[in-house]
Amino acid sequence: MTRSFLRCADPSCARESAPAPIAYACPRCGGLLEVAYDFAGAQPEGWPELWRHRLGGASELDRSGVWRFRELLPFLPEGQAPISLGEGSTPLVSAPRAARWAGLAGLEVKHQGVNPSGSFKDLGMTACISHAVSEHARVVACASTGNTSSSMAAYAARAGLPAVLFVPAGAVSSAKLAQAVDFGALVVETGSNFDQALRLLRQVAAELGWYVVNSINPYRIEGQKTAIVELLEQRGWRVPDFVVVPGGNLGNVSAIAKGLLELHRFGLIGKTPRLLVVQADGSNPFFRLWSSGGDILEPMDDPQTRATAIRIGSPANWPKAVRALQWSEGDCASVSDSEIRDAKAALGTDGIGCEPASATTLAGVRQLRNSGTIGEAAEVVAILTGHQLKDVDYILEEHPQRGEGVSLSLDQDPGAASRVLAAWLESRG
Description:
By secondary structure, this protein is of the alpha/beta class. It is 39% helix and 14% strand. Strands 4-5-13-10-11-12 form a 6-stranded mixed sheet, sandwiched between helices. The mean pLDDT is 94.
């Protein structure tokens, strides 16, 4: 019978503890925690066929791209139904024009923006809100640059729980805030950046006994790890050479690494891809740590980037991310806001939309291709984390000419109208 427990993610400590009540740091060393399992009697060799058989099933559980892989996250009490909105089951799409722009023979993108609330956060939120219900939480809360807040608000509403979100004042997309408000969350604006909001939240939550759903919560990572399982299943279990993710609070790369490690231990994959993290130049403390070869991350007090979803100066999951890159022989890149803008436009030529933070992956791929880290024929999958409509203001500000359009009068000579439109099409090449 499978047993779940919490364990310190620092191998030098590895202290084990009971899975409840929820904790966010190791009581011995203060390090990050992870959910671990004793898979006694498990028969993982049959899991891929079982997971495939569940595709398109009648059960709501089987239609979830997280809980369809429930053998990998058996932490809920027996008989408890997860809190689900049909998350996951996101497309893996080829991007030939974006590939040529980046200097690759081919490229695939795993679009996590096609989730109920429009971002990859839903994969983790279904897991940790389900755990919150099992712990009889009274209030769930988060600090957020936007995506976590909208996801938490949706899943909290589904579970019938009050939700409180702390956001940096004036620094979150109005579209993301609108989602959270629409789901009934209480919005608390505080500080000027995510890190300040998170510090205050942790103080308040500790005093009031709130359940925190940020990625310091190890159950968030459990849900998010299923993205790599679904990706590999979609590729017929052919492992790509590289998997590329944006780097904000670094929970995503940590989760993907955990999923890969478990699949490898079970013998379901024979090798692992190299993991690549891409940050924005104005918000790149992890890149600075990685490129310097240092041991301790130095936070940035005032991170700045138009890619607001990754504008984080003190990423909580950096120790897990370091281990992820070391274990997978991965790497880290840092790209400018202008490179992010160009990469987003390149994805657009394939009809693929995403929020700015997602486009860091393609910008980083191009940079690493130019440096020789990625070969032209390499099999690369870029993770897109958020939907195009998460930050409409960015699109209209970066491309004002696209909103101008062409004005035609009903009284205008048809020939003149044709010439106007022909000139517009010629200008587009």
